[in-house]
Every structure is written in C-alpha cells, then in structure tokens.
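Q: I'm writing a short methods note and want an example of a predicted protein-small molecule complex. Could you take the sequence and the SMILES for 2-acetamido-2-deoxy-beta-D-glucopyranose and return the bound structure as tokens? Please keep the output block clean; save any remarks for afterwards.
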Amino acid sequence: MPSFKSGVLGVGALALALLLRSDGAEAIRPVNPQVVKLAAKKATRTAGHAKRATPTFPLYNFTQPLDHFSDTGFTFQQRYWVSDRHYKPGGPVIVFEAGEGPGDERMPILDTGIIDILANATNGLGIVLEHRYYGKSVPVLNFTTDSLRWLNNEQAAADSANFIDNVTIPGIKGDITAPGTPWIYYGGSYGGARAAHMRVLYPDIVFGSISSSGVTHATVVDWRYFDIIRQYAPQDCVARIVQTVDEVDTLLTRNNHTRNAIKAVFGLSGISYDPDFASLLSSPLGAWQNRNWDPAIDDPSFFDFCEALGPLDNATVTTHGVTISNATAQYANYINQTISLDCPVAQQDECFGSITDPESFSQTDLSQTWRLWNFQVCTQWGFLMTPPPDPATPRIISKLLTKEYAHLTCTLSYPPGEHFAIPAWPNVEDVNKLGGYNIAYDRLAIIDGEDDPWRGDTPHSPDPRAHNRTDTTIRPFKLIPTAVHHWDENGLADPSAEPDFIQTIHHQEVTFVTEWLKGFKPPSAH
Ligand SMILES: *[C@@H]1O[C@H](CO)[C@@H](O)[C@H](O)[C@H]1NC(C)=O
Ligand SMILES: *[C@@H]1O[C@H](CO)[C@@H](O)[C@H](O)[C@H]1NC(C)=O
Ligand SMILES: *[C@@H]1O[C@H](CO)[C@@H](O)[C@H](O)[C@H]1NC(C)=O
Ligand SMILES: *[C@@H]1O[C@H](CO)[C@@H](O)[C@H](O)[C@H]1NC(C)=O
Ligand SMILES: *[C@@H]1O[C@H](CO)[C@@H](O)[C@H](O)[C@H]1NC(C)=O
Ligand SMILES: *[C@@H]1O[C@H](CO)[C@@H](O)[C@H](O)[C@H]1NC(C)=O
Ligand SMILES: *[C@@H]1O[C@H](CO)[C@@H](O)[C@H](O)[C@H]1NC(C)=O
Ligand SMILES: *[C@@H]1O[C@H](CO)[C@@H](O)[C@H](O)[C@H]1NC(C)=O
Ligand SMILES: *[C@@H]1O[C@H](CO)[C@@H](O)[C@H](O)[C@H]1NC(C)=O
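A: Understood, no commentary inside the block.
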C-alpha cells in the first residue's frame, strides 16, 4: 500500500495529513474538524482527477438494490476483485471487507496479505469486496444528508449477505455461493466490526469470521483512544506532551493576555475559537495509529514528533510575555514548522476554524469522500474523542476537546434534509445490540493489537464491561503484542522475512481457519 506521503497534500498540511491514511479522508480516525477541513480542501483540489488505480486482479460488478428493506426501484454496482491463483474447486471463499475506503487500495492484501495467506493454505478463492458508497460502489449522485441515508450498517450487512448468497463469478465454474461453499469473512477496524456482525447476523451463510482490531463497541465518547497512546507511547515523550497540554490549558483560561500569548507562541494567533486551537495541537498524535511493522508502509512521524520535543528537562523560556516550560516551547516550535507557518495569521480561521468557517463543511459533490465515514460516525458509531472523564488522569489532549466540540463535525456537515436528519447523538445501540465488547460466536475470531489506540473499542478493551475470554480454536481470542491497528492484515511476498510475531499470528490464523474448515459440511450432507 502506498503511504500517506504519496497523496496529494498541500504544503502545511503535513502534520494534519498524519491523521489520514493513503485512502485520504475515509479512514477511521479521531474526529477533528481540522482533519475534515483538510480532506474537504484536498477533495476540491483533486476533483475531476480520476484516482489512478492499477488493479492487478480482475474487477467485477455485482448488482445491489439501493435499499434492501424497501423497494426504491434503484440499483447500483458493487465492485469486487478476485484472486483465483490458489483456488481449487471445493475450496472456500476468503472475502476481505474493504470497509471505509476504496477497494482498489486493498489489492496488496489480496496479493501478499492475509487473504492470500488464507487462500494459499486452503485452496481458497480470494475476494476484496468494496463497501457501498466507497470507491466506485456509489449508489447516489451526491453526498447530501438525504443522499447518504442508505449508508448504514444494516444496508451494508445486507449487501454482503446478498453477495455471498447470490454471486456468480465470471471464469469460476460451479456454484460458489453459501451455504454450499464455506465463506470466511475477514475485516480490520470498522471492517473488523463488520466481519463480526456478519457472522452473528448471517450465521448460515458466513461460515467463519476474523475480526481484526474490530471496533465492535460503538461509543459516543471515546476517551480511551488518546489514553492508550498516553500509556503505550515512549514515556519521556508522553511526559513532554502532558506538561504542554496542561500548561496550554492553564494559559488559555487564565486571562486574555496569557490566552493570546500562548496562541502567538504556537504561531496561531489567528485562530479565534480556542477549541480549534487546542484541537490543532493534537494533530501529531494521530500518527501513532499509522505505524506498521512493515517499513514500506510504516509512518514514523510520531517518533519524529517525539524527537522534536526533546529529552526531559526543567528549563523554562520566557517569550511573548509568558514563561513556559521548554517542553511547551519545543512543542510550539514543531507546530510552527509543520502547521502554522503555512497559513498566514489573517487566514487561520479559514484554514483551521470550525464554527468560524462553517462553509468549508458544506460541499456535497461526489469528490467529498470525507463525508462518508464521518456520516457513519455521526449516525451510528460515535467515537468522539475527548480527554479521560477523571480529571486526575493525565491527558495528552486539551480539556477543551469536549464531545460537544467533536460533534461540531456532525452538525456543521449534515444539516437536516427533507427525508433524513442525523440523530442528536450517534445511535450507538444499533452496533452494541449485536454484542459490543462481548460479541461472540463459534468460528468468530477476535484479533487485536496491544498498543492499538482503538483497542478500547474492541473485545480486548481495558473497559471493565469487556469480559476476558479463553482463547480457543473455535473462538480464537488473540492480542498481538506491541501491535497497533490490524497488523495481521498485511504480509510480505516472502513470509519468512516478516517479523516473528507477525509470522506467528499469520500461522495461528491459518491453523484455526484450517481447523474450522475440517468441520464444514454442505447442507445436503447434513
Ligand atoms: C461496473 O459498473 C459501472 C457502473 O455501472 C460501470 O461503469 C463499469 O464499467 C462496470 N464494470 C465492470 C467491470 O463491469
Ligand atoms: C503457501 O502454502 C504452502 C504450503 O501449503 C507453503 O509452503 C507456502 O509457504 C505458502 N506460501 C505463502 C506465500 O504463504
Ligand atoms: C442530490 O441528488 C439528488 C438526486 O439524487 C437531487 O435531487 C438533489 O437535488 C441533489 N442535491 C444537490 C445539492 O446536488
Ligand atoms: C439472493 O437473491 C434472491 C433473488 O434476488 C433474493 O430473494 C435473496 O434475498 C438474495 N439473498 C440475500 C441474502 O439477499
Ligand atoms: C477577552 O477576550 C474576549 C474575546 O476576544 C472578549 O470577549 C473579552 O471581553 C476579553 N476579556 C477581557 C477581560 O478583556
Ligand atoms: C512560532 O512562530 C511565531 C510566528 O512566527 C513566533 O512568534 C513564535 O515565537 C514561534 N514560536 C516558537 C516556539 O518558535
Ligand atoms: C530546550 O530543549 C531543547 C531540545 O531538547 C534543547 O536543545 C534546549 O537547549 C533546551 N532549552 C533550554 C533553555 O534548556
Ligand atoms: C527536574 O526537577 C525535578 C524536581 O526538582 C528533579 O527531580 C529532576 O531530576 C529534574 N529533571 C531534570 C531532567 O533535570
Ligand atoms: C485473561 O485470561 C487469560 C487466560 O484465559 C489470562 O492468561 C489473562 O491473564 C487474562 N487477562 C486478564 C487481563 O485478566
């Protein structure tokens, strides 16, 4: 997969870009108005430029109804890619849920990642299935609130079920639909939650699922995301961040002199709404999630940021009429160089503002793909990022980043339509009623990463409501040590070159899927 650095990003957007994956705005990520704005600007700049995709696997369409639950008379084409390099008749289908991004960017997973690994081990047919509204599987003419109303978990699950139940694949002889053929459904992150949901909702046609870093617990407020980074990132670096955040919060609220001074220190005097300023300061933290064991797709910028903060010291610096710690001065210097310098003070509300620049959230043409995952956040998933509820817990983000602030991305982006209005707060119960932290089923594997900031929303959450489980073949429950976000998803052409702990999880996945398949009997054989 190309790294985010190859994307078309304007100068000055670098630090913000750290929050975006190669597929731009559509990645699951902390909700942050600046990220949304950056994505909106990027979309506008690149509108009309076709995404250069070089699929190395044949691409097909599958016809889906726009609405599975009431007849609108409309259909759309859902894209999928097929790898038959390991397939032998009678083998299973291993399907990858492409989730909240274009399917064509998932080709490496079909080529050398977990789909190829499992297909190789089982004589399976590998498939990447694009999610409705993403990539080119777009059923509507624009992304207004009304047009987005068929983008929800229930429609997406019904798409996959219809596909598994009814697909015929050009060039593949015989019937490979379920339940005559065993289907193994793999997904990571949001896709991981989808994989778990598919097993629970359609157990008769989804033979087994692997939910990797699956965010099966939806939550309006997600304070664990940044708290996990605080606990697992290098502690000297964390101490510098905690000190800066505390100092900035104090200066912002002490009086107008200190408030203006601290913004000036960061080169951001032009941001008038304080939470926008505080939010921008959290931008470098998103890079924690973008790390990978494979150097070719790793984003090392979290460590660049830490290096810029320097080692622990007790020095102070007096500037702009305030005395600040050297930690804050170094943090300010980093923000200055990566963000502030590229947007003149007079334009900073336009560059970085939320309520001070509502216009930037209002475009609805099909290039505004940032509207898709955000819509899912605002309607069913939540994950509004805040500091920990207990004020005694150290924080690496400002206390100004309330859920009300994060929720501005919802109210500014999705005004009520004629047919649909987003709920006052995300309806997370739609997700959690399927099991949440404790979602479980035979042949549903739960794989998570120990250092993953999303772990708080997975069955491996430290939340006391998440029950500990025993890891068994029929219900695998595995935590990959030191891993961040779905680190089992990608692989190398030469598996022996993967780090040992990645070879181990791949081997374990092959083992349990192979064991599962031994128990498969087509319905006629019952
Ligand atoms: C899939 O459907 C789209 C939209 O109708 C069409 O433009 C495209 O050519 C189709 N692709 C294939 C491989 O059939
Ligand atoms: C494919 O499977 C064979 C054994 O079934 C194994 O020797 C080989 O290493 C596998 N290849 C990959 C790329 O995993
Ligand atoms: C969005 O598309 C619908 C048709 O699907 C159309 O009725 C509506 O006017 C469009 N709105 C905008 C703002 O383009
Ligand atoms: C498969 O297609 C048939 C015929 O269109 C339809 O009735 C059925 O609901 C589809 N299966 C699923 C799971 O949607
Ligand atoms: C501080 O600044 C705010 C916003 O610019 C202003 O409304 C307020 O009157 C100022 N307070 C004082 C004490 O000057
Ligand atoms: C950041 O840039 C601003 C504007 O150029 C400057 O006033 C401020 O001192 C700089 N801060 C640091 C820590 O270098
Ligand atoms: C502040 O930290 C930087 C980076 O570690 C260091 O180079 C600088 O000397 C420190 N400043 C003071 C006043 O100690
Ligand atoms: C900072 O000050 C504390 C308390 O005065 C002291 O324990 C610590 O060693 C100092 N740290 C450094 C890096 O000088
Ligand atoms: C969860 O249970 C496993 C054994 O089933 C045990 O090894 C592990 O320490 C437990 N974890 C926690 C956090 O209690």
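A: Remarks, as requested: The two ends are 43 Å apart (CA to CA). Residues 235-254 form the longest helix (20 residues).
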